Amino acid sequence: MRLGFALACGLLLTSITVSAEPAPQLRVLSGHVIDGMRGGNLSGLAQCGNDLWAVSDRDDGQIYRLDTRESVWQAQTVHIDVPTVPDSGLPWGLKSRVWGASFVRGGDLDFEGITCDSAGNRYIVSEGHAAVLQVPPTGPATWLKISPMMVREARARGLLLQFNALFEGLVINPAGDRMWLAAERQGRGLLMIKRQQTLWDCDGGCVLLSEAGMEMQPEQFPRAKPVPRDFSDLSLFNGKLFTLDRNAFQICRRDAQTAKVERCWSYAAELLEESRRYSQNYGLEEALIVDADGAWIGVDNNFGARADGEVRPVVWRFAAPEGGWSARP
């Protein structure tokens, strides 16, 4: 028994990732609370031309254009008529749990990310159905026709197995013909699909990365402990893929073709300041935009109050790291 227990502990410890060298810290420039989001739960951000767009995982029939002219941002509702969701190949058990949860929390579609191409098309990922909705500048919204191989391969690689831990973010290239999706946790992963005429399909394989295991929360987190490695959003900048590693409180730059990590930056020192903390025992950052001057990070606080009493969604502006996002370690 003792030997078995020791071996089990050894296996557990080897699955916990601890950074050997701390990631450089990003610096907050400003913070903006958002008024007018009905569901309140900010789960995705996208920069489309001059407009900033947002989604809430509690709202199925609308997205939001953000008026950013004042310090407090106003969410302007844009209604969308969502057609019937296609079958993505998820098993009945997962789909039934999504259906049941929608009566309790709202949001059967569970919108978790938004992105846009250079033509102004917006793309929204439904975590509840592992599907992507395209919302053009004019005309009706339609669901992308995605090969069932995507979900099949993802599940075979250990992704999309847990309820409420499916696709948590997406990003598309400016040309609108290549898309990356982030599987959230247990295990977490990155997938890429390409548009081939009317069908979005795998280019050889869909899964670029699949990994499980635990990692330590940053030292600034109260009573830090090992938590599942996760992704909560994606951004594409200068041909590089940037992941929001929520439980690690960091942004990581990755090769867009292989998903290999090149460098990471931490935002823990800023967002875990005492006045900015929330009572939840995990990271709450769910929206990411990386640009030449910095990054936007949006917080989904699940209606919980911040230490200073703020209950509205908030978006933080961070300065670009020293040397820019392309800097080498």
Automatic annotation (TrEMBL):
Keywords from the named record: Signal
Signal peptide: 1-20
Pfam family, one: Phytase-like
Residues covered by the Phytase-like domain: 40-186
Residue ranges the record marks as coiled coil: none
Name used for this protein in its record: Esterase-like activity of phytase family protein
Domain of life per record: Bacteria
Source lineage: Bacteria, Pseudomonadati, Pseudomonadota, Gammaproteobacteria, Pseudomonadales
Listed InterPro entries: Phytase-like_dom
